[in-house]
Design brief:
mainly alpha; about 65% helix; 20 helices
Length: about 500
């Protein structure tokens, strides 16, 4: 590939981001009704043209991002680039998802006293608070109970209350939360990279400048961004000896989306590995301490939010909706249809069994990674990233942005490892899987497959070419005294 300066790639990426957003104004997930008349549907020709523009802009952004990671940019330059690439999205309508309408509608449901864990947004009065948002919710989600924790519902309620549920300000209010999540991710990435003696600029490239994150966290406002930010911040605090505070943040992350709970196991591993004292005492403290703190946070948050403990029963809601990226769902459904003529078994039952086996395999892999980390064979934070990737790969429901759960961790610990290269290639491909409206057209999978094939080819070529210009390689070891300092911090038990 041709090589330009980091500044040139910054400008190219900004042009791509602006084009993707401009296309989104006509081809994005526009609301069913906007009383302000800003985000309104257009004719078929303009909408199709806008979608083409959005895909072209996305391609420019992906190419600029890929090459920017090989331009040797500094941390300061990367932060400026992040601002350039993010700025066009700040006032845009929802891109690549309709989930933000669900968030606003659920906030209205909490305000009106509806049980969000029993009924869906369709319960709202079309002409009342959150009615426009409820009418804009995509398909089956209209009658689906909320799978999110009470902490996020409190935030959604606050935005809906402050904006009166009016579409444009409510969406922009949710985007403010998404931008705050991005800033938290940036802070955590830099600190995690520093703790592990890795390149901060490389961590920012894979973990923050990543088009998959920009489009789905900033553009689409998925609450996964806030979950990731809080989870990473909790790990940072743990590495600094403040495991109680770290567990509190992970507990809050769990009260957005439950997969953050995986981090508690590895926080425990960090404690067991470095805290002084008898091994049995360290083991009990590491295995029980973070979980008990997070459980207390969950109970307190639920009681203060007043939404009830229904979230415990809705964690499997997402698994009832088939997504083509879920390998266990696809295999289970295919196997069910093959067995039906022979055994008369219900394909849905077979699918459920395979999904359960997939989750069991994910748990086994997570425990194996924790054991390796405890034995010193894998760095605990990196093992957390691999564990989250394993959970995504074997989950009954997989969306493109779920890849970000583990990518953000791997970005800070081993962006140049095989896992880092794999998630980089997948990130470049999965941005194409979703249409600006949030739908998943068949050609999206074709584009995603083509992008992954190109990315894999480029990686293979770079790894074999002696003339390849790469980003600054991460240091192979921590700075002198870093490990000892971390041990002292954790032993102090400061909060």
């Amino acid at each position: 590939m041709w090589a330009l300066s980091a500044v040139a790639y910054r400008r190219l990426g900004a042009a791509g981001s602006a084009a993707a957003v401009l296309g989104g104004w006509a081809a994005g997930k526009l609301p069913a009704h906007d009383p302000w008349g800003l985000w309104v549907p257009h004719g078929a020709l303009l909408t199709t043209s806008a979608a083409v523009l959005a895909y072209a802009g996305l391609t420019l952004l992906v190419v600029a991002w890929w090459q920017y990671g090989r331009a040797g940019a500094s941390v300061r330059e990367s932060l400026v680039t992040l601002a350039w690439w993010t700025a066009p999205m700040l006032l845009a309508p929802p891109l690549y998802s309709a989930d933000v309408y669900s968030y606003i509608a659920q906030g209205a449901m909490v305000i009106e006293g509806h049980d969000v864990y029993v009924v869906g947004p369709s319960v709202l009065d079309p002409g009342g608070l959150g009615g426009d948002a409820a009418a804009s919710v995509g398909g089956h989600w209209t009658d689906t109970p909320a799978p999110y924790g009470p902490f996020f519902l409190v935030l959604a309620r606050g935005v809906t209350w402050l904006t009166g549920g009016t579409i444009v300000p409510a969406v922009l209010g949710m985007r403010l939360i998404a931008v705050a999540a991005l800033l938290l991710i940036v802070w955590a990435l830099r600190n995690l990279a520093r703790e592990h003696g890795r390149s901060e600029s490389t961590a920012l490239w894979l973990g923050a400048l990543n088009p998959l994150l920009l489009m789905h966290v900033v553009g689409g406002m998925h609450n996964d961004g806030l979950m990731i930010g809080l989870m990473l911040a909790g790990v940072v605090l743990t590495l600094r000896g403040r495991w109680i505070s770290g567990s509190v943040l992970v507990g809050l992350a769990m009260m957005i989306k439950s997969p953050a709970a995986v981090a508690l196991l590895f926080i425990g591993v960090i404690m067991i590995s470095v805290v002084a004292g008898p091994y049995a005492r360290r083991l009990v403290k590491g295995l029980l301490g973070p979980g008990l703190v997070a459980a207390a946070v969950a109970v307190a948050t639920t009681l203060l939010a007043g939404t009830g403990f229904g979230w415990l029963a809705t964690q499997n809601v997402a698994g009832t909706i088939h997504t083509a990226l879920s390998a266990t769902s696809d295999i289970g459904l295919g196997l069910g249809h093959l067995l039906h003529p022979l055994t008369g078994s219900d394909p849905a039952t077979v699918k459920s069994v395979v999904q359960t086996l997939g989750l069991a395999a994910a748990v086994a892999l997570i425990l194996h990674l924790a054991w390796r980390a405890l034995r010193g064979r894998t760095e605990p934070v990196h093992a957390l990233g691999l564990a989250l990737l394993a959970l995504v790969a074997l989950s009954p429901m997989v969306q493109p942005w779920y890849l970000l759960w583990g990518t953000a961790v791997v970005a800070a610990t081993a962006a140049h490892s095989r896992a880092g290269l794999v998630v980089a290639v997948l990130s470049a491909g999965l941005v194409y899987e979703t249409h600006p409206t949030g739908s998943t057209p068949p050609y999206g999978f074709v584009l995603a497959g083509a992008a992954c094939a190109i990315g894999a080819t480029l990686v293979r070529r770079e790894r074999t070419s002696p003339d390849t210009v790469r980003v600054p390689a991460p240091r192979s070891a921590e700075p002198p005294g870093a490990a000892e300092a971390r041990v002292r911090r954790v032993e102090s038990g400061s909060v």
